[in-house]
């Protein structure tokens, strides 16, 4: 071997040894305080290097186009235990990737609090549903249930959603080639802003949209509040977003006693009152609206796009879904203007299409908790694995939804798998589980259903780049934002 080759070999060995020593020291630093008996009960895993831990591997897996390789690397190295130890978002973390373990964590409010990364909490708000303790969370959910998912509220929202979808689809069909996802996000943003603020003018909507776009890109970033970092730009955007919403809220409170021609979500949140006469304060209302702005706009737009793409790729599924919508249209009285909630409840097969899209796309691929005490989670062994008090827990919904042992042919789009099937707790988690179940799920499915109803009845999608590469952060989407033509048929 030549001298340069020898030095290269020595350097490679040195790198391997240093890497192993640093990883072992980092792991020891977090395990030392647990004591021997608790340390022996920890799940298998790898803490990685200090500060970064598994973040590089996580980002590489998602940005390389193979997101399942992240959990796959733990399965390959440590076996199919379903529970793994690592270090992410600056904290020791236990990854949970089986239905049983997810159910255990999500249903145990006494042992687990929300544990979202600091960046997410700072951007959504400390008084949103993300961070509240159990009692306050229950109070807030009870107060906001009717304004968000109540029958009267959904009936009011449905009319605007229906009219907006009809007008938007007509506009797209005349526009030629469009970025389908971009336009869908604009449509769903317009809908959610009007649901929040019926009288919002174009300037207010534009200010909200501009600020929200920057905020969204910082949701999964490291909480580094320095110029040049995504979180810094997102945090500035949140301040602008809060300023706009506070201005509208001040105006609403000032004219509270005046007659109102229509009532929107902000009005309903202002009027909400619990059994003790307690109302929501400004910070609670604003943080709730920011949270719904994220969930109600971003997720709905992406699921509308993917459901449309899947339907177009599977003509037999498209035909079955369309036939259901045609039957619903035939049953609507001529005196009825637009869709009703009764019509929405009859969209059984379309609901299966949406559920299958939610399972396969995995918009919410992970959620976060923090252990408030030592907890043992049973996975593949009877005694269970220890989740130490104060450690974070990441629930990998994506791994559950894509597990072939849970869903046969899990990579196939098959809405009929939901026919007559009720998934057992922990196996279907697009909206979470337990008391922290997403409070806007009915509104989201209503919006998606109305869009697909009108698309199925009168339009088709022709993609410019049907084999376009997929980007997975912050949400799965084609890199060309689904460049396509929408054609009336």
Automatic annotation (TrEMBL):
Principal subcellular localisation of the protein: membrane
> Where in the cell?
Membrane
- Please name the CDD domains in this protein's record: CYP90-like
Gene Ontology MF terms in the entry:
ent-kaurenoic acid monooxygenase activity; heme binding; iron ion binding
As cofactor, the record names: heme
| Membrane topology listed for this record | Single-pass membrane protein
**Which family, according to the similarity comment?**
Belongs to the cytochrome P450 family.
Return the protein name: Uncharacterized protein
């Amino acid at each position: 071997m030549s001298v340069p080759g020898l030095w290269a070999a020595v350097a490679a060995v040195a790198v391997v040894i240093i890497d192993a020593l640093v990883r072992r020291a980092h792991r020891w630093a977090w395990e030392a305080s647990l004591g021997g008996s608790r340390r022996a009960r920890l799940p298998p895993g790898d803490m990685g290097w200090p500060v970064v831990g598994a973040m590089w591997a996580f980002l590489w897996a998602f940005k390389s186009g193979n997101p399942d390789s992240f959990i796959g690397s733990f399965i390959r190295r440590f076996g199919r235990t379903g529970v793994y130890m690592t270090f992410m978002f600056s904290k020791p973390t236990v990854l949970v990737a089986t239905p049983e373990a997810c159910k255990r964590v999500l249903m145990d409010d006494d042992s687990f609090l929300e544990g979202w990364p600091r960046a997410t909490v700072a951007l959504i708000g400390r008084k949103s549903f993300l961070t509240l303790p159990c009692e306050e969370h229950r109070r807030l959910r009870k107060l906001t249930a009717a304004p968000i998912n109540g029958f009267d509220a959904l009936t009011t929202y449905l009319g605007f959603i229906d009219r907006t979808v009809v007008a938007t689809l007509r506009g797209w069909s005349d526009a030629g080639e469009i970025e389908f996802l971009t336009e869908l996000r604009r449509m769903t943003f317009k809908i959610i802003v009007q649901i929040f603020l019926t009288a919002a003018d174009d300037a207010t909507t534009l200010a909200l949209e501009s600020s929200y776009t920057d905020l969204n890109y910082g949701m999964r970033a490291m909480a580094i509040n320095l110029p040049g970092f995504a979180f810094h730009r997102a945090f500035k955007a949140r301040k602008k977003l809060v300023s706009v919403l506070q201005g509208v809220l001040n105006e609403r409170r000032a004219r509270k006693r005046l007659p109102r021609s229509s009532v929107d979500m902000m009005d309903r949140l202002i009027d909400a009152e619990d059994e003790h006469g307690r109302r929501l304060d400004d910070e609670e209302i604003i943080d709730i609206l920011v949270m719904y702005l994220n969930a109600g706009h971003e997720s709905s737009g992406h699921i509308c796009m993917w459901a449309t793409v899947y339907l177009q790729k599977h003509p037999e599924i498209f035909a079955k879904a369309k036939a259901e919508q045609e039957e619903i249209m035939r049953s609507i009285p001529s005196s009825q203007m637009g869709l009703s909630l009764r019509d929405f409840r009859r969209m059984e097969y379309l609901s299966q299409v949406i559920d299958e899209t939610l399972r396969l796309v995995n918009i919410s691929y992970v959620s976060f908790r923090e252990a408030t005490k030592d907890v043992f989670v049973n996975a593949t062994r009877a005694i269970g694995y220890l989740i130490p008090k104060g450690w974070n827990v990441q629930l990998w919904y994506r791994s559950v939804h894509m597990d072939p042992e849970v869903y046969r042919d899990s990579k196939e789009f098959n809405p009929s798998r939901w026919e007559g099937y009720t998934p057992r707790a922990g196996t279907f988690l697009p909206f979470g589980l337990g008391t922290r179940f997403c409070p806007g799920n009915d509104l989201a499915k209503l919006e998606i259903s109305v869009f697909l109803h009108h698309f199925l009845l009168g339009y088709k999608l022709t993609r410019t780049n049907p084999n376009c590469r997929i980007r997975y952060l912050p949400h799965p989407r084609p890199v060309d934002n689904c460049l396509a033509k929408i054609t009336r048929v």
